[in-house]
Design goal:
Distance between the termini: 17 Å
CATH topology of the largest domain: Growth Hormone, Chain: A
Number of strands: 0
Radius of gyration: 22 Å
Helix content: over 70%
Number of helices: 22
Number of domains: 3
CATH superfamily of the largest domain: MFS general substrate transporter like domains
Length: 510
């Protein structure tokens, strides 16, 4: 059996795809896979480090160049751009090929990093962050597609676990590096620190990844710029719901009628803006579904009648589960339990550590055990989310740490197998677009979860001021709603197991 487009040295690697083949961690570095393992892990490390560094140095940034009113935009624009980049990953990889597409992502991220490091205004910094986010999204989406191409099915969970470990590493190292540069008052160094790593990553991608040149038909495909832009607009609208009040206030000042915008505050306008953002995203998916070339998403990406649609819903819901903890736990430790900023940040990073731990210790599960993990993981995450909501402000901080660990462990238990199953169950001919769009779907879940959490928290009183009481009420309310996400993911996990069983039976018959 031959796979067209791959040079002979890579065929033996790609054709070893038995689900039941026993694997070890060392197998990731055998048969020429080591350089791929390093390249893909480094790509995720760059993205993860970028995410954790900014939060530590941002106070220093706004003190030097101003723009405190746009404090949260650095994260929001980065997240929006990363979703746009993730949605672009599949079309770019198809059009440029594996090696060129991955290396191009590194060049874009390098450009954004240099722009951010040289910023002399908040606008320039935000431009750099947007470019960085776009490059990071390209890296992560193509990362998933390359795992599908370069590793056999039996090794994919271990490779996904390696990439998860990069997040745990960054959760500890990122704040430390950012803190050192912030302490010295040289915030630009936090960006420049990553430049050698990005250059090395880009060089490895260009020199060592296998070349799979696009066919003339693929090269001629038009980039779906309209759909990608529409998706970005929808995500930005959803992400901006927590700033609706400020936006209306600014509008009132601009038109000289600030009093007339007072009635636009409150829950109603936020829900309207949220609904508009979700409608734009849904419209993007519908438009994309009518295309025959340069698709951003696979066929019927949210249909529960198929395995990929079921898995995509599960990705979104599993992604929502830990969002509230990730956003609000630093505030809980500082305001409710009176911890300093750095210990609060590290206690909150435990979520990423146990996420990675869960993914790592379950990466070698057999197929029957994987079925259990897809259902059991959301169960653990649900109990962790509920535990945080019940215990915040009532019980001591080690209890909250334990519940955070349980949430992260539950997500990690299922996420690598969910990714592997999605890639394995993709429609014939849609393997690349299915794999590359996984990160887009996960990011959408995070964005929607963050927007919803912001609305709920403000309605619970957080918008009135940050006190121990308002933080406690906000987190309790957010976690009560957030628990619905892993509960639904339990049902979807069971449905996905049914889809997989039918798929395997059908494959055995043929």
């Amino acid at each position: 059996m031959q796979r067209r487009g791959f040079a002979p040295p890579f065929q033996d690697i790609l054709l070893t795809t038995a689900d039941s083949a026993p694997t070890a961690w060392a197998d990731l570095f055998r048969q020429g896979r080591g350089v791929y393992t390093i390249a893909l892990a480094l790509g995720i490390l760059l993205h993860a480090m970028d995410a954790f560094l900014l939060g530590t140095v941002m106070p220093t940034v706004v003190r030097e160049i101003g723009g405190a009113a746009y404090y949260s935009w650095g994260v929001m624009l980065y997240m929006t751009a990363s979703i746009i980049g993730a949605a672009s990953g599949g079309p770019i990889k198809i059009r440029l090929g594996s090696r060129r597409g991955y290396a191009a992502a590194g060049v874009i991220m390098l450009g954004g990093t240099l722009v951010a490091a040289a910023a002399d205004s908040i606008g320039m910094l935000l431009l750099g962050r947007f470019i960085q986010g776009f490059g990071a999204g390209l890296i992560v989406s193509q990362n998933v597609a390359l795992i599908q191409e370069l590793f056999p099915v039996s090794l994919r969970p271990r490779m996904i676990a390696i990439t998860s470990f990069m997040w745990a590493t960054s959760a500890f190292v990122g704040p430390l590096i950012g803190g050192i540069f912030a302490e010295f008052g040289w915030w630009r160094g936090a960006f420049l620190f990553a430049v050698p790593l990005i250059v090395f990553f880009t060089g490895v991608a260009w020199l060592k990844l296998p070349e799979r040149p696009p066919t003339p038909e693929q090269r001629a495909r038009r980039f779906p710029i309209g759909r990608v832009a529409l998706l970005g607009l929808g995500v930005l609208t959803v992400g901006g719901t927590s700033n609706v009040d400020q936006a209306f206030d600014a509008l009132g000042v601009a038109i000289g009628a600030s009093a007339t915008t007072d009635g636009l505050h409150g829950l109603g306008p936020k829900l309207v803006v949220l609904a508009i953002g979700l409608a734009i995203v849904w419209m993007t998916v519908r438009i994309d579904g009518r295309q025959t070339k340069s698709r951003v998403f696979p066929t019927a990406p949210f249909s529960l009648s198929g395995p990929v649609g079921t898995a995509y819903w599960a990705f979104m819901l599993v992604g929502m589960a830990p969002v509230a903890a990730g956003i609000f736990m630093p505030l809980v430790y500082q305001v409710v339990y009176h911890f300093p900023a750095i210990p609060s940040g590290y206690l909150s990073s435990i979520l990423a550590v146990f996420w990675s731990l869960g993914s790592t210790i379950t990466s070698g599960l057999s197929l029957p055990q994987q079925r259990l993990a897809l259902v059991g993981g959301p169960v653990l995450a649900m109990f962790g989310v509920i535990g945080i909501g019940i215990g915040v402000g009532l019980w001591s901080w080690p209890y909250l740490v334990a519940c955070t660990c349980l949430t992260g462990l539950g997500v990690g238990l299922c996420i690598s197998h969910l990714m592997n199953w999605t890639m394995s169950l993709a429609r014939k001919g849609e393997e690349t677009v299915t794999a590359s769009s996984i990160q887009t779907i996960r990011s959408l879940g995070i964005a929607f979860g963050a927007a919803g959490a912001g609305i709920i928290a403000n309605q619970a009183g957080l918008g009135a001021g940050i006190t121990a009481e308002t933080v406690t009420n906000a987190v309790t309310s957010v976690q009560a709603v957030a628990a619905m996400a892993p509960f639904a993911a339990i049902l979807l996990g069971a449905l996905l197991v049914t889809h997989r069983r039918r798929h395997d039976e059908s494959s055995a018959d043929t």
